[in-house]
Structure formats: structure tokens, C-alpha cells
Specification:
221 residues; two-stranded antiparallel sheet; 9 helices
Amino acid sequence: MSSIPATPTAIRIDFVSDVSCPWCVIGLKALEQALDTLHGTVQAEIHFQPFELNANMPPEGEDISEHIARKYGSTAEQMAQSREAIRARGEQLGFTFAMDQRGRIYNTFDAHRLLHWAHIEGRQKALKMALFDAYFTQGQNPSSHELLLAVAGQAGLDSVKAAEVLASDAYADEVRAQQQFYQQNGINSVPAVIINERHLISGGQPPEVFEQALRQIIAGT
């Protein structure tokens, strides 16, 4: 007599992040690896939520080394160590951080507006990954409308509709409201991975940490 396979547990994951955050890439790739390990056990629906690390960043951006030194007080040696740690973690997870390509940090509000629209269109994850690749691997400017249109096309979105979104203030209020909601609920750093709107996993954790946490959450549901 054959056993009936268990039905996967459906979970909601809100992944609060910024497209200019390297640890958000690491966290997402590690989460995906954990979900692959739990295939057949978990059925996850991921929603990418906005968080601007530098909401007041001017359009021209800022030199990344100067920005990090000013914001965090990091020395050149500390920044070099951090860059190498990020590069190595990315390599382990199959993502290329081309540190020599990324010299500036930019405003990401329009990218978040486009991501909000991409969610409605069912292409949010594709756009998120394309934006990560454009910035961290290719060193391009995620505040540039030209780049955002190109990346939208790569993600399978309608470029004409994407241009209409960017040329207007579409979804600006929604993005600001979402950001305010998470900040008011204690999210002040990213990535923040929220499971079923109740359980928080903070930071770019290793895959096994995500896997263990997900197993515990499933066991408690």
C-alpha cells in the first residue's frame, strides 16, 4: 500500500530589501537555496517589499567609499575586508559581485516603484534579480530610467508600460506607505525576511539558518 504524499505547507514570505544592498542579494540567494532543499515540504510565495537605505541620495549618487566612510565610519581596511566577504559569499551562492564595477551608490526609489508594478504584472522576482545583476555585477546605475527600461524588458515586462510608470508618479504613494509600515514595525535594516507576517529572520543568513528557521515555523503551524 503506497503512502499518500504530504501536502506542502503554504507560506508567505515578505522580503524587505533594497536593490543597492549586497547582503540582500546574499540573503535572497540563501533563502532560495533553503527553499530548494525544502522542495515538496514548503510552497513559498515571495513578496518583495521596499526599503531605501539612502532615501535622500541625490540623482547623481555618491562615491561608494566616501559614502560608507561617512555613514558607518569604516576605514579603508574594513571596507576591503567587507568587500571580500561579500564577494566570497556571493560566489558560494552562485552570484557574481564585480566589486571593481561598482563605484557609486544611487537613489533607488524609482526602482522600487517599478518593482511594485512588476508585482502586479507577475514579474517581480525576475525584475528584482535583473536589478541586482545590473548593479552588482555590471556596475550600472539603478536610478537611470534608461537602465530601468532595459532591465524591465529583460525581465519580460512591457517596456512601453514601464516607461509610462517611470514618467509618472505611479505607485509612489504605495511604495512610501509600504516603507513606512515596515519602519513603524521595527524594520530598520535589511534584508528582513518575514514569514507569514509573524516570524522575522534578519540579515544575509546562510542557507542552513533559513532552512532550520523554516522547519521550525512549519512545525509550529
